[in-house]
Amino acid sequence: MCAKASGEGEGGRAEFPAFPFEPYAIQQGFMEHLYRAIEHGKIGMFESPTGTGKTLSLLCGALHWLSDDRARSMGSLGFLSAAPGDGAGMAASPATEALPGWLTTQADDLQAQRERDRAERRARRTERARRELEAERARSATGPSALLQGGGASTRRAVERRETDAKSKVDDDARFVVDDWDSDDGGSGAPKRRRAGGGVSSESDATSGSDDDPDDAGGAASGPQVIICSRAHSQITQLVGELRRTPFAQEMHSVALASRQQLCINPAVRKLGSAARINEACLDLQRTKSSGTKKARGAREDGKATAMAKGCEFLCKGRERDRARMRDAILAAPMDIEDLAKLGSSRRVCPYYAARDALPHADVVCVPYSSVLSRSAREALGLRVAGSVVILDEAHNIVDAVNGAYSATVTAKQLAATMAHLAGYLSKFSSRLSPSNLKYLRTMELVAGKLLDAANGGKPARAPDAGRSDATARGSEAAQTINAFLFASGLDNVNMFKLMRYMRESKVLVKLSSYWEAESEAVAAVVGSGSASAQVPSGERMAALHAFAGMVEALTTADDDGRLVRLQGPSDGAAGSAASGGGGLRFILLNAASQFGRIVSEARSVILASGTLSPVASIAQQLFPEVPGDRILHYSCGHVIPPSSLLLMAAGRGPTSQVLDFRAATRSSDAMVDELGRLVANVSAIVPGGVVLFLPSFGTLDVVRRRWQASGALDGLAKKKQPFFEPTAAAELEGVLAKYASAVRSPNAPATGALLVAVVGGKLSEGINFGDDLGRCVVVAGMPYPNRGDPELQERLRFIDRCAAKVQVKTSGPEPALTSAEHYENLCMRALNQSIGRAARHAGDFAAIILADVRYERAAEGLCGGGGLRAPLTKLPDWMKPSLRVARRGFGDVMVGLRSFFASRK
To answer: For burial by CB atoms within 10 Å, which of 245, 554, 690, 699 has the most?
Structure first.
């Protein structure tokens, strides 16, 4: 399905001087093929194992292309090839051919002059901002207070605001009333009443307050941007760090975007904790200021309101020039998220909105996945995908990320709380609402009630079979098409598209959540002291509204692209299950291509990169099945680690010759767990440093730990390797990793290192570096196939088979369609490849990997007779395959191989 990487000969580049050192051959090849993929507008799928400099290769290859593209654009405007006045370098369009030559020449000169002026203003702002940053760094050495330049003025403004607030009389209720709304005329549906006062009043308004800078008449980047996406904020920090190593750090403008939770510097807002509460408080403060209200109520602690000053002192009218200077500082030098927060604190300017101000002017944008994959998030941020280069790093789970971005879950408890709050809000404000607002709020109340009935096992459980998956319906959850669900729930006559647009554009959720937060006790009194509203903690109240809104948006998805699943709780069907949170609804997106296709169609080029994307055909068919194969370029480079530095063995028997069979039916038996303990003990006796054992699930991990403790095997292991187990709580993970690393580097005799028992698909199986002594040996017990009984997985497998049937009808080409059986196998191998990729991380590293299950041995036994691998091991990373060996004479072969391998490394 993918074009060969070597198939492109034109539009390339052979030298990449921005690379900070002499690149390896695989890095050179990576950058060359990346450049060609972008130049030709292709979808690139790039595999580069960890330790091969993937991030740096991505940056240099993409930014060299961007630099060349900008040079070509400037040349076409006369920057390079024409002096002002000679009119050269401008291609005449059909519309201008009939005009006199002097007129077209003058127009061309004016356009070129505008571009030169824009570039000069940009250069001046950048140079000024760099001087200011250098001065601030110099002053910071004399004391932290020196960084607070302008802090006195800010303090005076804050005092003045507090004095004004003290003298003002407040109408606390007015700010909770939704602005007049009328979308029935087919117009935009924007609120009729203009907001009074100045300052920032909405998400979009907040990004446009820097035009007062006299040096900023225009200047936003008009060409393509390079948008680099990572899964976590920590990876964005790594991206920025690598960018600083290149000359592009000085030549190009960059910005890193993050959430309010990461960047907010308002103490009263930050202490709210959850992302939802911080988002709502931020918007509420802006709305409070712009609507002329003199005081905003902040968070409630133990039911007591705390007053915040009018608006947000870090984002208010009169600070436009400060925000413009902050924007320029962000663009002047690459800054990670921590840098942004520190700079915002020192200048007392909101770094979240300053970064958004910088976005249109940036050449390079570093963002988390969620900001790009979600269309609503892209629109809210003003992220410009059209014509840009979108690079998704660590893209091995991109299909799951897309599906997750558009899936939605709402519990019965959340729906009951939403209904209770809507009832309280309407009781309070119905006489002050416009007819249109009243109609939509009543519709929201109706929809919430119908969804609650469905979540508690109402009509959807008795729906006709036409839109229902029989196998799933017989399980603990019932799945339906969207249309079948809407009909069975009595919601088929509700226009979900209009309702969704109303909730988004009228900002009604902000009003509701602000009122709920400020008046929770009053709401409880209106609808009853025992109401769900009163019982839901304040942090969960806003989450309930957002969960409801997310489900409404999900119900606008095309019928074939998703399914509704009813989640059954312990109190399912019982009275009062809503209050106890018994049931719920989940929408699962099945067709990731329906959402990701928008990015593919708008962007100039989309690049997926990871240590391994294998099997790549599966990802391509799920994300862009309609894209011609010659537009997809797949490039896979080898590892800097030679085959001799990796020992990969498939073992089908344990130390007592017992067959290793870790399928679900047998893996928890005492005999199998005991044999695994003996295998790990033998391996630990030979392997220096750290050993990492991957198990199929947390349930298996609990079984193994309990059995080893009861049998004394854990005490025996502790004499060789100090044991640690992956925690289920993410907060405990860092502490366990730190203790494991310490035990590896400074073992307590007689132990020679440490053992870490982890879970495939858990936090430790992705993104964790077990290089050098931290991972001298990785043992994988069993094949990590997902649970076939999972209703969501069953729906996905059925969807894939339906798509495969359509493909077979439409074409008889040589490329086979993805089947559910192959997809199920791919899920296993993708998880396996990620887990075993935690070791052997750089050119000087070495490690052993043991695949402990008879199924691995059977798939690899062809190697013994000079044949090849069989599925699923054919989907191992290509660079690992030459190192694979089979323990065909039993576990003794494993021990001999380990002794020889590690002896050669001494």
So the answer is: 690
pLDDT tens sequence across 445-458: 999 999 999 998 76
What is the distance between the alpha carbons of residues 652 and 891, in angstroms, rounded to a whole number?
Answer: 8
Which residues, listed in sequence order, are joined to residue 885 by a DSSP beta bridge?
Answer: 649
Residue 261 and residue 323: Cα distance in Å, rounded? Answer: 19
Which DSSP letter does residue 882 get? G
Token reading at 342 = 């520190």
What's the CA gap between 311 and 317, in Å, rounded? 9
* Fold topology of 119-147+195-295+309-393: Rossmann fold (3.40.50)
Residue 233, token pair as written in the block:
């904020």
Average the pLDDT over each of 104-108, 280-284, 422-426, 682-686 and give the range with the smallest value.
104-108
The yes-or-no answer to whether 119-147+195-295+309-393 and 643-786+835-903 have a common fold is yes
The tokens describing 515, both together, are 């009122």
421 and 541 Cβ atoms separated by less than 8 Å = yes
Fold of the CATH domain 643-786+835-903 = Rossmann fold (3.40.50)
Cα 832 from Cα 116, distance rounded (Å): 54
C-alpha Rg value of the chain to the nearest Å: 30
Q: Where are the domains of the chain?
A: 3-80+611-636, 119-147+195-295+309-393, 406-595, 643-786+835-903
422 Cβ contact list (under 8 Å, min separation 6):
441, 444, 445, 448, 512
User: Is 64:18 a contact under the CB 8 Å cutoff?
Assistant: yes
What residues contact residue 190 under an 8 Å CB cut-off, 6+ apart? 505
The DSSP code for 506 is S
Q: How far apart are CA 36 and CA 13, in angstroms?
A: 8
481 closest CA partner among 564, 416, 379, 399: 564
Place of tokens 């000169």: 109
Rounded Cα distance between 89 and 79, Å, is 9
Q: Worst-scoring range by mean pLDDT, 193-207, 208-222, 425-439, 865-879?
A: 193-207
CA-CA distance, 569 to 580, in Å (whole number)? 9
Cα-Cα end-to-end distance for the chain: 45
pLDDT computed for residue 846 by the predictor: 93
Positive or negative, the Cα torsion across 176, 182, 183, 188?
negative
Residue 435's identity, in one-letter code, is: P
Handedness of CA 666, 667, 669, 673 (dihedral sign): positive
646-651 β-sheet, strand order: 722-725, 753-759, 689-695, 777-781, 847-852, 646-651, 884-886
The DSSP result for 24-40, as a single string, is PHHHHHHHHHHHHHHHT
DSSP letter assigned to residue 315: B
The answer to whether the bond into 615 is cis (omega within 30° of 0) is yes
Residue pair 349/319 in contact (Cβ under 8 Å)? The answer is: yes
Q: For residue 633, what are the β-bridge partners?
A: 3, 44
Task: Classify the phi-psi angles of 780: left when phi > 0, otherwise alpha if psi is within -120 to 50, otherwise beta.
Answer: beta
pLDDT at 787 over 50: yes
Going by C-alpha positions, the residue among 124, 161, 122 that lies closest to residue 293 is 161
Q: Where are the beta strands (DSSP E) in 309-434?
A: 364-368, 389-392, 408-411
Give the torsion sign (CA, 586, 589, 595, 600). Answer: positive
Q: How far apart are CA 875 and CA 861, in angstroms?
A: 15
